[in-house]
């Protein structure tokens, strides 16, 4: 009978030990998730477009006017590139030519308040795709 008590005591003790949660798989999963987030975070951060926005009345830039690439979007949705009107379908080729000639590859975009935001974003995207290193949005001074 003593053997039965010991056998039953062992089974109760073994059952108590198995009821404790095993944290090892949980920790392993958490560490794998941390590694996945560390690897994917830089890719997510590069998705945006960095732009420089000037305030009306800001100081004069250090670059000469002929070195700058100026894109003006008029109220009637026409695109002017360095003072000359450009057809929308010709804009990517023309801006690539101007960016290639430019030393700093800096594009200034001036748009009216009445312009669609989507059109301004298209100009930003095309400028970056064609090789612009920096893009600045210039607001017109209030009268």
Can you characterise this structure?
The mean pLDDT is 76. Strands 1-6-5-2-3-4 form a six-stranded mixed sheet, with helices on one face. The protein is elongated. β2 and β3 form a beta hairpin. It folds into two domains: 44 residues; 87 residues, 2-Layer Sandwich (Nucleotidyltransferase, domain 5). The protein is built from four helices and six strands. It is an alpha/beta fold and 143 residues long.
Shape: elongated
Decide which structural class fits the backbone.
alpha/beta
H/E order of the elements?
HHEEEEHEHE
How far is it from the N-terminal to the C-terminal residue, by CA? 104 Å
Helix content: 40-55%
Major beta-sheet overview: 6 strands, mixed
- Discrete helix count: 4
- What proportion of the residues form beta strands (DSSP E)? 15-25%
CATH topology of the largest domain: Nucleotidyltransferase, domain 5
Instruction: Round the mean pLDDT to the nearest integer and report it.
Output: 76
The side-by-side strand order for the widest beta sheet comes to: 1-6-5-2-3-4
SSE topology:
Elements: H1 2-18, H2 24-45, E1 52-54, E2 69-73, E3 79-81, E4 84-86, H3 91-101, E5 106-111, H4 117-129, E6 134-138
Parallel strand pairs: 1-6, 2-5, 5-6
Antiparallel strand pairs: 2-3, 3-4
């Amino acid at each position: 009978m003593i053997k039965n008590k010991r056998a039953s005591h062992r089974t109760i003790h073994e059952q108590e030990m198995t009821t404790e949660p095993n944290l090892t798989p949980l920790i392993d999963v958490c560490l794998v998730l941390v590694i996945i987030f560390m690897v994917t975070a830089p890719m997510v951060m590069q998705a945006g477009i960095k732009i420089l926005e000037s305030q009306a009345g800001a100081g004069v830039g250090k670059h000469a006017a002929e070195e700058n690439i100026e894109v003006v979007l008029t109220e009637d949705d026409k695109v002017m590139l360095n003072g000359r009107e450009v057809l929308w379908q010709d804009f990517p080729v023309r801006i690539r030519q101007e960016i290639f000639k430019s030393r700093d590859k800096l594009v200034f975009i001036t748009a009216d308040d009445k312009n669609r935001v989507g059109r301004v974003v298209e100009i930003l995207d095309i400028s970056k795709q064609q090789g612009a290193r920096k893009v600045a949005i210039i607001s017109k001074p209030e009268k």
